[in-house]
Design brief:
By secondary structure, the protein is an alpha/beta fold. The chain is built from seven helices and nine strands. The longest helix has 20 residues.
Length: about 240
């Protein structure tokens, strides 16, 4: 109930203060488990994405956000669940939490890059998104978020108002065709396919085949051969 209450409040506020354009939403399944995989450019990404999806969207968030009662209610209200991120057991806990959401037929959102970009580029994805899809059989819907860093840059505590945001959904990616491949290679190839689609959906952010962080902050990473991501370099949004 708190989630839908918060959404009812935030939706008119965000749409009033920002010009939000949505593309490809009709292709997002309206039932069954879904993994939404998006690029990550701003703290506000986790507010804009659920805003335009008609189903409850769950994220894994830093447990520190829930340590204070003053902020815990807000993060729970916007569909985030806490996870301690120190060590391998924390990663397994995040994977278990995500798996539980998908096994209930829910929608789980993840940022394959692992953290917000600090240099403006889109980076190589960690393979947690592929591992989750192969474990649950849930399709991955790539999402391109454009302009959110203009709403709240990473070095600003308060958002900027009256900016434009585009949220672009791609066609669902089925993980089943990777099942017969070697596990590590399948994880890497599926992740690279997801990132390729995200880059194409964004259309304006240059891709760098390097990690934004050494380790993913959300789901555990399995190493495998890296398949290069081919793309046409594009100019970043100023």
């Amino acid at each position: 109930m708190l989630y839908w209450f918060m959404k009812a409040i935030l939706t008119p506020l965000l749409r009033g203060f920002y010009r939000v354009r949505v593309e490809g939403r009709a292709g997002v399944p309206d039932r069954g488990p879904i993994i939404l995989a998006a690029n990550h450019r701003s703290f506000l990404d986790s507010l804009f994405l659920p805003l335009v999806v008609g189903r409850r969207v769950t994220f894994v968030a830093k447990a520190e956000y829930f340590d204070s009662k003053k902020t815990a209610w807000f993060f729970r209200g916007v569909g985030q669940i806490p996870i301690r991120r120190e060590g391998g057991s924390a990663s397994e806990g995040a994977l278990a939490a995500a798996t539980a959401v998908l096994e209930r037929g829910g929608v789980f959102a993840i940022y394959p890059e692992g953290t917000r970009t600090r240099d403006g580029f889109t980076h190589r994805g960690h393979t947690g998104v592929a591992r989750l899809a192969l474990r649950t059989g849930a399709p991955i819907v790539p999402v391109g978020l454009v302009g959110t860093e203009e709403c709240q840059p990473i070095d600003r505590k308060l958002p900027r108002l009256f900016r434009r945001v585009s949220i672009r959904f791609g066609a669902p990616i089925q993980a089943a065709r990777y099942v017969d491949d070697a596990e590590g290679l399948a994880l890497r190839q599926l992740t690279d396919e997801v990132m390729f689609e995200i880059v194409q959906l964004c259309g304006c952010y240059e891709y760098r085949d390097t990690y934004a962080t050494k380790r993913a902050e959300d789901l555990p990473t399995e190493l495998g051969r890296v398949a290069p991501l081919l793309h046409t370099p594009a100019t970043r949004v100023a």
